[in-house]
Write a structure and sequence with these properties.
Elements lengths: L11 E8 L5 E7 L2 E6 L9 E4 L4 E4 L1 E6 L19 H15 L3 H14 L2 E9 L7 H12 L5 E7 L10 H11 L3 E5 L8 H15 L3 E5 L3 H18 L5 E5 L8 H14 L2 E4 L10 H7 L3 E3 L16 H11 L5 H9 L3 H7 L14 E4 L4 H7 L3 E6 L2 E5 L2 E2 L3
Parallel strand pairs: 1-4, 6-7, 7-8, 8-9, 9-10, 10-11, 11-12, 12-13
Antiparallel strand pairs: 1-2, 2-3, 5-14, 14-15, 15-16, 16-17
């Protein structure tokens, strides 16, 4: 697949004989990179390219709501992980290893982004380290990847201070430059436990975001009461500054460990301020309650976090696998509950990240996946190779392999 050249969009095509998740047999008409119509027996117009779906299950392109493309060792030799148990151990180990090894964020982010495409992900939010030692080097590499894949992968970049905002002088100036250089979202990290001053940290974060008119996506690993305290301070600032619908709280482990009354009060504020939550559904850490969030009107979506990097040997660019892991973490077994897990890596993730024109309806961007599976639940648990992936109206992969232009 030639990811750097821009080609004229095929004006119109028709995918025939596919099944929606409700079992209905339909055709999908595409024009100028958008879904034109979905329905049974759509007309075959002269000159329209026809693709026979052969009864495959039709799904929208998947959404990765939280990953770190710049960190990955995808496709490289195995990294032997001997890092210590603390968060700061992982941060310092990663910085040291990336500097010593010459890790190339551009090449590695491109390799993993292409793997995401082959597996059906067409929208993606990635956090990129902004570091006082590396400067904007990692950002520059991921910006190059976004440019290379701009015709097929809708990528948001978060400028992320992996060591926190206050502890390394000059970080705020680098974040300021990163937002000016093309980062879409401002990141942050544990204002109390990493920065040591949640008021000053949040004030500076929101000031930067307001200056650039950018949304915020904060890593909040802080547990229990201290996490709840930080979350409350953050929500105060969302309300005071009118940033409703512009903030994501990633991880939010505290919401999985608080007493129900305190938790529900925070969920009510999150819903009222339209602050979304992101979970990777880790197996051994408290997580926000999925069904309670849905019932209370809180957006909770999913992502991988890091994939095959110095932090973790785990992760995969297959968002159906992440949906399965979400389902397992929350004890979801019924087919309708598995559909809720799929929402976390599709429509709910698109909403949480602010990706527009998403879905399988007329006018949406033509991002779709065909897969050989009986039902959506079957697709999540079996995760067969994607028969066909289309992004922005272009065929980008067949049978799990990127197409060649």
């Amino acid at each position: 697949m030639n990811t750097t050249a821009t080609h004229p969009m095929t004006n119109a095509s028709l995918i025939t004989n596919v099944r929606r998740t409700d079992g209905a047999r339909v055709d999908v008409s595409l024009a100028d990179g958008r879904v034109a119509a979905i329905g049974p027996d759509l007309p075959r117009e002269p000159g329209v390219r026809i693709e026979d779906g052969a009864g495959a299950l039709l799904l929208p392109g998947f959404v990765e709501g939280h990953t770190h493309l710049d960190k990955t060792n995808w496709g490289m030799n195995w990294y032997c992980n001997e890092v210590g148990p603390k968060l700061t151990d992982r941060i310092e180990n990663e910085r040291r290893w990336r500097a010593q090894s010459g890790h190339d964020a551009g090449a590695q982010s491109l390799a993993l982004a292409r793997a995401f495409l082959a597996a059906g992900t067409t929208r993606l939010r990635t956090h990129v380290d902004i570091d006082t030692e590396a400067g904007l080097r990692h950002l520059e590499g991921v910006l190059a990847t976004r440019t290379a894949l701009r015709d097929v992968l809708d990528m948001q970049i978060v400028a992320f201070p992996q060591s926190g905002l206050l502890g390394r002088p000059g970080t705020d100036a680098l974040l300021d430059r990163a937002l000016g250089a093309g980062a879409d979202v401002l990141g942050a990290l544990d204002p109390a436990l990493i920065d040591g001053d949640p008021v000053a940290s949040l004030d500076l974060t929101f000031s930067l975001a307001q200056r650039h008119q950018k949304p915020i996506d904060i890593h909040l690993h802080e547990p229990g009461e201290i996490g709840a305290f930080t979350l409350g301070l953050l929500l105060d600032r969302v309300a005071a500054l009118g940033m409703q619908g512009q903030v994501v709280v990633s991880h939010a482990f505290c919401l999985g460990a608080l007493p129900e009354r305190e938790r529900d009060a925070l969920l009510a504020r999150l819903a009222d301020l339209r602050v979304a939550l992101l979970t990777t559904a880790p197996p051994s850490t408290p997580v926000p309650p999925l069904k309670t969030c849905v019932e209370r009107g809180v957006t909770l979506f999913g992502g991988n976090d890091g994939i095959r990097d110095t932090w973790t040997p785990y992760g995969s660019p297959d968002m159906l696998e992440r949906a399965m892991l979400i389902a397992m973490r929350y004890g979801l077994r019924r087919d309708d509950d598995l559909a809720l897990a799929f929402d976390c890596v599709s429509s709910t993730a698109a909403h949480g990240c602010g990706f527009t024109h998403y879905g399988l309806q007329a006018g949406a961007r033509a991002d779709l996946v065909l897969i050989e599976a009986d039902t959506l639940a079957h697709a999540i648990v079996a995760r067969p190779p994607r028969k066909l992936v289309m992004a922005n109206g272009r065929i980008v992969a067949r049978n799990g392999t990127l197409a060649q232009d």
